[in-house]
From TrEMBL:
Record InterPro entries: GH, Glyco_hydro_1
Gene3D superfamilies: Glycosidases (3.20.20.80)
Family: Belongs to the glycosyl hydrolase 1 family.
Keywords assigned by UniProt, alphabetized: Glycosidase, Hydrolase
UniProt protein name: Family 1 glycosylhydrolase
One Pfam family named in its UniProt record: Glyco_hydro_1
Protein source organism: Enterococcus hulanensis
Keyword Hydrolase: yes
SUPFAM superfamilies: (Trans)glycosidases
Lineage start: Bacteria, Bacillati, Bacillota, Bacilli, Lactobacillales
Length: 385
């Protein structure tokens, strides 16, 4: 297909099955080095996400996940093992996946109904990421480090000042708070005000503030799927489309389709941070069906991706935004995290499997496969289909 970069994630238990071992599992490291070597054989840059919404069950149960500061040491041990084995081969690293979107995962110490516990866990993730950047820079001076955030667009539902303020507040609390700390290097005033209002006190160790300030990430990676509109009655604990946007079409699952919103977000983020940006997830889930020719004629996917790539091009050429790259979700059909089903398909390659896991697992190119191969080859210049 001609990929230039491949983003994949580490399964923590393949390296440290319980998280407490003193030495990493060689077989797990061999597995990931084989993946990296296969990429490099085809001139594909590996982009590795160290923690993708999971951890060993042992340390989750014993310590309560990220609520415990002990997890910082466990994470640094994982990162060190990866850097020692893969450091000479991998340049691009993401410490966490969608760090602002895991508040509902109690096994990670991120239960959304326990705000005091959740924000303490987030602080430990912030420190773990910063210390990983420090260690990574010492071990791999040419490596670049980012963190991935879920940052689809937020708009006010109307020009009512209450809606405008609600949208701004939601955007900061649900998204920009995390990138503010990890890029600017300190807790913003609005977060301190929120913590005071909610009775939250972050327990810090001496030196934490200096660590956050000194070891910020090099680039901001983010996912973009939709836009959401917010009013002053919106529940800020809901990340997905809270209210329908009458100006936008939707996917079969009701997700708004907003290519211009991606350009909006690219401008929003660069205006705020002046750091390079990397779009590491973007795609549309659809009801793909094999036709009489044994393939999927998914022109809707070509249009979705093509329209978004056009807006990325506009952001680069017209707005002068430094965009490092673009990795759509996902190359091959897989189970949708949002709905837990195979029916909601994202890939350029069809996987013969149903929601119950039944099927031959055979992989079949969709029409979008050759189309996206051409898009890569022309660096987005030819989006025709």
């Amino acid at each position: 297909m001609g990929f230039k970069i491949f983003r994949f994630s580490i399964c923590w238990t393949r390296i440290f099955p319980t998280g407490e071992e003193s030495e990493p599992n060689k077989t797990g490291l061999d597995f990931y080095e084989n993946v990296v070597d296969e990429c490099l054989k085809y001139d594909i840059e590996p982009l590795i996400t160290i923690c993708h919404d999971e951890m060993p069950a042992y340390i989750a149960n014993k310590y309560g996940g990220w609520y415990s500061r002990h997890l910082i040491d466990c994470f640094l041990k994982l990162s060190k093992a990866l850097f020692e084995r893969l450091g000479g081969k991998v340049k691009y690293w993401l410490t966490f996946n969608e760090i602002n979107a895991v508040m509902g995962y109690p096994e990670m110490g991120m239960n959304s109904v326990e705000d005091k516990k959740r924000f303490q866990g987030v602080h430990h993730e912030f420190i773990a990421s910063a210390l990983t950047v420090k260690m990574g820079k010492e071990m791999m001076p040419d490596a670049l480090f980012g963190t991935m955030f879920a940052l689809s667009a937020f708009y006010p539902e109307s020009c009512n000042p209450k809606d405008v303020f609600a949208a701004m507040s939601s955007r900061r609390v649900k998204g920009l708070f995390y990138s503010d700390v990890m890029i600017r290097g300190y807790y913003p005033n609005y977060a301190l005000g929120l913590f005071e209002e909610m009775g939250i006190e972050i327990k810090k160790e001496p030196g934490d503030d200096e660590i956050l300030k000194k070891y910020t990430i090099d680039f901001l990676a983010f996912s973009y799927y939709r836009s959401a509109i917010i009013n002053d009655k919106s529940n800020i604990n809901i990340l997905i489309d809270a209210n329908p946007n009458p100006y936008l079409e939707t996917t079969p699952w009701g997700t708004s389709v907003d290519p211009l919103g991606l350009r909006y977000v690219l401008n929003e983020l660069y205006d705020r941070y002046q750091r390079p940006l990397f779009i590491v997830e973007n795609g549309c889930g659809h009801l793909d069906k094999l036709d009489e020719n044994g393939t999927v004629n998914d022109t809707y996917r070509m249009k979705y991706l093509g329209d978004h790539i056009t807006q990325i091009s506009n952001a680069i050429n017209l707005d002068k935004i430094p965009v490092m790259g673009y990795t759509p979700w996902a190359p091959i059909d897989l189970v949708s995290l949002a709905t837990g089903e195979m029916t909601k398909r994202y890939g350029f390659v069809y996987t013969d499997m149903d929601n119950e896991g039944k099927g031959t697992k055979k992989r079949i190119k969709k029409a979008s496969f050759d189309w996206y191969k051409k898009v890569i080859a022309t660096n987005g210049e030819d989006l025709s289909y």
